[in-house]
Design brief:
By secondary structure, the chain is mostly beta strands. The protein contains 4 helices and 18 strands. The strands form 5 sheets. The chain has a 5-stranded mixed β-sheet with strand order 2-9-7-4-5, with no helix packed on it. A 4-stranded mixed β-sheet has the order 6-3-1-8, with no helix packed on it.
Length: 304
C-alpha cells in the first residue's frame, strides 16, 4: 500500500508574549505532519518582520542576532509533531509592540500544507521614559497652566510675569506612543487652560464651546493600570472658570475646603514618578485667591 506524501503545516494564530527584561523570551511554534510518518522529513523556516529588527532576536548561541532567524526543522521517522523555538532579546527600554512572522519553506521528502505561516507579537513591558510637566499659576486670577515643553516653560518664565512658576506638577511620557494623549484648550474668556484625556470630551468641547481654543495634544500619560500610575485630580474654580490638576490628594482636599472649587474626579493618570519637586516653592494660588478677588463671573456663565 502506498503511503500518502507527508504534509507539513505550522499551527495558525498569534503567539503573544511579553519581551521580559532578562536574557531572552522563547516563542514556540508547533509544526505537524500528516500522511506518511515512516520516513524522516525536514523543512526550512525563516522569520521576517516589518516592525521588529534583526537584533530583537537571539541566535542559537543566545547572542544578539545579526540577521533574522533562519533554520531547519527535522522530524525523524515516527515523529508527527515538533516545535520551532524563536528567542527574542529582552531589554529594559520602552518600544512599541512588534509583530513578526515565521514561514515554512523548502520541504524535503514532504510537501507544505495550506498553513505555512504563523505570527508572534513581542509585547513591550517597559515603562516609557518620563519628563516633567511644569505648573504655572496666573497671578491675576488664579488660573493654571501646564506644559511638558521645557522651551515653552522657559519662554513663559522669561516673557509672562503674570504666570508664576510652581515647579513640577506631575510627569508624562517622553514618547507620545508610550501612553495616551492629553488635549489642551485655552479659555479665551479668562486666559486659563483646560486639559482632558477624554477624546469624547475633547470633541464635545470643540463642537460646543467656541471660547475654548483647541491647542492639540500636549503630553502623553499612563493608563490606570500602569505600574506606579498616579491619579491626576481635576478641580473647577466656580469663581473664575479655571482648572487645577494635582496628584496630591491633600492639595485637592484643601482646595475643596475653601468652598469655591468643584471636584471633577480623576482626569487622567500620570506615570511615576509623579511628585511636585519643591512644594515649598508653591504657595498655591488657590489659597491666596478668595472668591472676592478672583475674576468676576458667575458659575452659570462659565465653561464647565
Amino acid at each position: 500500500m502506498t503511503m500518502a506524501t507527508p504534509v507539513l503545516t505550522i499551527a495558525p494564530g498569534l503567539n503573544d508574549r511579553l519581551e521580559g527584561s532578562d536574557l531572552g523570551v522563547q516563542f514556540t511554534f508547533g509544526v505537524t505532519r500528516a500522511g506518511d510518518s515512516t520516513v524522516p522529513v525536514s523543512v526550512g523556516f525563516r522569520v521576517t518582520s516589518t516592525q521588529a529588527s534583526a537584533n530583537d532576536f537571539l541566535d542559537k548561541d543566545l547572542q544578539v542576532a545579526l540577521d533574522y532567524p533562519v533554520g531547519t526543522l527535522t522530524m525523524a521517522a515516527g515523529e508527527t509533531s515538533k516545535t520551532i523555538s524563536v528567542v527574542v532579546s529582552s531589554d529594559r527600554f520602552f518600544e512599541p509592540d512588534e509583530r513578526f512572522d515565521i514561514t515554512l519553506f523548502n520541504p524535503v521528502d514532504a510537501v507544505l500544507g495550506t498553513q505555512t505561516t504563523s505570527s508572534g507579537i513581542i509585547r513591550n513591558d517597559d515603562p516609557g521614559d518620563v519628563l516633567p510637566v511644569y505648573r504655572f499659576a496666573k497671578i491675576s486670577n488664579g488660573a493654571y497652566f501646564f506644559t511638558g515643553s521645557l522651551g515653552e516653560r522657559n519662554q513663559i518664565i522669561a516673557s509672562f510675569p503674570d504666570f508664576r512658576a510652581e515647579g513640577v506638577g506631575f510627569f508624562a511620557y517622553a514618547e507620545a506612543s508610550a501612553g495616551a494623549p492629553v488635549y489642551r484648550f485655552a479659555n479665551l474668556n479668562n486666559g486659563g487652560y483646560f486639559f482632558t484625556g477624554s477624546l469624547a470630551e475633547r470633541d464635545a468641547t470643540i463642537a460646543n464651546y467656541p471660547n475654548m481654543r483647541y491647542e492639540g495634544s500636549t503630553f502623553s500619560v499612563a493608563s490606570s493600570t500602569a505600574p506606579g500610575a498616579q491619579p491626576v485630580y481635576r478641580l473647577a474654580n466656580l469663581t473664575n472658570g479655571g482648572y487645577l490638576y494635582t496628584t496630591a490628594a491633600a492639595e485637592r482636599d484643601a482646595a475643596l475646603s475653601l468652598g469655591f472649587w468643584r471636584n471633577e474626579g480623576v482626569s487622567f493618570y500620570a506615570p511615576a514618578p509623579s511628585v511636585v519637586t519643591d512644594p515649598s516653592d508653591a504657595s498655591l494660588a488657590w489659597t491666596e485667591l478668595a472668591p472676592e478677588s478672583a475674576m468676576t463671573a458667575t458659575p452659570d456663565s462659565l465653561w464647565v
